[in-house]
Amino acid sequence: PANLRVIVVSLDGSGDYSSIQEAIDNSEPGDTILVKNGTYTGGVRFTKSGTKDKPITLMAYSGHKPVILGNLNYPKYDATKRITVDASWIIIDGFEIKNSGENGIRINKPHVTIRNNWIHHNKFNGIYVANVGDILIENNTIEYNGTDPETCINNGSFSPRHCHAIYFSHKTTGCTGNPVIGLTVRNNALGNQAGAAIQWNGDDCPNAFDGALVENNLIVDSARGLNLVHNLNNSLIINNTFSITSYPETNETSKTLIKMYNSTGNVFQNNTFHTTL
């Protein structure tokens, strides 16, 4: 759609704002926020929603590769030092996202697109999606999240098997009785995880996820490729390439290309599998 405004963010003062957060706080539906080169520290939080026809877009300025570095004290835990999406109809496009104090990106609202980003070396997961649908994740490289020392703490101990490139959770707000639909993961490079490249977890939610699409991804060198555990149903996993020759240090004991249980009606088609392990 035609955008209402273009807003420029630059650390050198040549833009409308020098802070990504300030630009987001002053945005309106239909705005495109273009970010120039530089390292932007601290958390970023979306609280204003766009609309279906006029999303709010946070995007790298053409030819630029801005970095969103979450936590200057990485890997210290700080949930405010991440990208938090508490709004709908949001697009995030073209950033290097690293060293968050929690997940690289946490998505709490539906209708969100994450594309063309490099998401790596965050404290927990690369992208965490909390019980919401209509999520498009495409053309990203997501790797090495929760693999550094003092990251991925579970019950007080380093537990890298609990951190993933992408984690879809239905447990965050409890079972609603309605499945999460519209989860699309397409054309990404996912890997080098001590947990899974993609994890779905709808434990104790019989109708957790339905109709996901996982298409044309390169899934490499993770302890688990896909972890379809607890109620991912009627989904299509098509044209992906799985290749595992090594993986980061992990406490995962059941290493595999695909693990699936308590999930029905899923179709696997035209995937390629390769491992030397």
List the main descriptive attributes of the protein structure presented here.
277 residues, mainly beta, 9-stranded parallel beta sheet, 1 helix, 32 strands, 2% helix, 40% strand, globular
* Total of DSSP H or I helical runs spanning 4+ residues: 1
What is the number of E strands? 32
The amount of helix comes to under 10%
Average the pLDDT over all residues and give the rounded result: 94
Distance between the termini: 48 Å
* Rg calculated over all Cα atoms: 18 Å
Low-confidence stretches: none
Q: What percent strand? A: 35-45%
Derived from helix and strand composition plus strand pairing, the structural class reads: mainly beta
What does the main sheet amount to?
A: 10 strands, parallel
Shape: globular
Arrangement of strands in the largest sheet: 1-2-5-8-11-14-20-24-28-31
Walk me through the structure.
This protein is mainly beta and 277 residues long. The termini are far apart. The protein has a 10-stranded parallel beta sheet. Strands 3-6-9-12-15-21-25-29-32 form a 9-stranded parallel beta sheet, with no helix packed on it. The radius of gyration is 18 Å and the shape is globular. It has 1 helix and 32 strands.
Describe the structure in brief.
This protein is an all-beta fold and 277 residues long. The chain has one helix at residues 20-25; strands spanning 6-9, 32-35, 39-41, 44-46, 56-60, 67-69, 83-85, 90-93, 96-98, 105-107, 112-115, 118-120, 127-130, 135-138, 141-143, 153-154, 157-158, 166-169, 180-181, 183-186, 189-191, 196-201, 209-210, 213-215, 218-220, 224-229, 232-233, 236-238, 241-244, 256-261, 267-269, 272-275.
